[in-house]
Amino acid sequence: MSALTESSIWKSLEQHFAEIKNERMTEMFKTDRDRAPKYTIEACGIRLDYSKNRISEKTMPLLFELATHCGINTKRKAMFSGNKLNITEKRSVLHTALRNVSGSPIKVDGIDVMPGIQAELKKMRDFSKKVRNGKWRGFSGRRIRYVVNIGIGGSDLGPQMVNEALAYYSDGPQTFFVSNVDGTHLAETLKKVELSTTLFIIASKTFTTQETMTNAYSAKSALLAKFNGKQDAVRKHFVAVSSAIDKVMEFGIDPKNTFEFWDWVGGRYSLWSVIGLPIVLSLGYKKFYDLLTGAHEMDMHFLNTPLEKNIPVILALLGVWYNNFFGAASHAVLPYDQYLHRLAPYLQQADMESNGKSVDIDGKPVDYQTGPIIWGQPGTNGQHAFYQLLHQGTKLIPADFIMPANSLNETGDHHLKLIANFIAQTEALMVGKNADSVEEELKQLRKKLMNKKLLTPKHLEYLIPHKIFQGNRPTNSITFKKMTPKILGSLIAMYEHKIFSQGVIWNINSFDQMGVELGKQLAKTVLEEIEGTERSERHDGSTSALVEYFKQNRL
Ligand code: F6P
Q1: Per-residue model confidence as pLDDT tens digits over 238-280
Q2: Pocket of ligand 1, candidates 243, 499, 513: which has the most ligand atoms within 8 Å of its Cβ, to mutate?
Q3: Catalytic site residue 384?
Q4: What percent of the chain is helix, strand and coil (3-state, nearest 5)?
Q5: Which residue, 266, 330, 395, 544, has most beta carbons within 10 Å?
Q6: What CA–CA distance (Å, rounded) separates 161 from 340?
């Protein structure tokens, strides 16, 4: 047994779960008129109503005790101070320094990292200004109209999500993101741009990632073909974002046009760094700075607020409650905001790459569940797709409902309808519908029918169980007034700290990603085999047969 599951607080939670597991939230609301305000908090312009959760008066104090027991207070301080929390890779975890708009010193190995961060920010600001105002020109002297970011994972999902979320505020070149090694991604993107007015950003911390480098070299070939092989064109149309300057130079990019970041910035936490270059190019530096400011405000909230009023900590603990005690395997992210349509894919990497671990920080196998499966889609689309399972399926799926009170595109009554759906869904998931109500509804319906044969008493009886909604399904309502760069910064930082807090409770390293390596290694071997002529006997029967199938069926 692990120290976590052996701890007395864990056992108290297990016992409490046994007491509360069948209690209904609707009853809790009836007996406590103050339940909604009691479980609603606000910080950084974000309001969290977590009253529609399966928690009683006893639950949260026990969960806060768990967080304290697991060392959340020391660990959150340690992260902000630059301690090497990423033990396996012996690295600090300092995405919070990237948005430390206060400028106060933060040291790694005794050296203040803030001057370096500020220098890169300035470089990004100056560069983007030149591109946006037309001083930076392409090889043929034309102004830049398109930006194509070539990167994958953290070098793609973060800036892409932000550019989509803040598209309303964009007044710069049109940005595209190419990530997939599937040549279709690049080919279809190149159809939408004009090469002589396109700037490519090669975004890769390591500058070795197979997908990114394959796309980067193909884009370079396309550009060289356009400019009759003139190598100088590369310097006008390619910039890099990387920590591997030597490899960038090898590619042919001018080191002056390379934006640097450090090993203490994890890929999935890097949008705040120069990886945010496509954001700055699209929105301008001022709005990027607002994004950083919003994140910094959430950082300060997370660092300094007692656990009882701390939004990321509360979200983390609720997640642990369902994941580890109710056995919920997944968590849905349901933004009622079309601009946030890339939030779920972004959070999939942020959360699942961070907390998808099965050994603790000491390398011992865990005997409890760690990170959940994160998934979701914007409402109302999801309502017409997978909400059936949320309402009537056999699985308990806690969900975050996220919504601004005001739309950036107020058109007729669209937004009021969106709000109505948001509220109705959280209510329906909690309240459900019992057999008596279903029966009454059906009887009323029957009364209205001219042809009573359409709903015979026998069929009415038969329909009842199909129309019952068990309810008691938990949701968080996360709302804010309007989507702005600052609010988005706070929202993303809120999730980052939620993920961190859960990692602290599960005693895992949330900052490495060794699980992505094996597939990468094997892909190299398989690539050699597919390119070669020899039949490979190195694999199991299925794998060898797949290799042969593709070799024989390539046209
Ligand atoms: O394969 C996973 C990963 O290492 C991510 O963690 C990272 O965000 C992504 O690949 C891209 O890495 P890089 O920026 O080095 O190309």
Answers
A1: 999 999 999 999 999 999 999 998 999 999 999 999 999 999 9
A2: 513
A3: yes
A4: 55, 10, 30
A5: 266
A6: 7
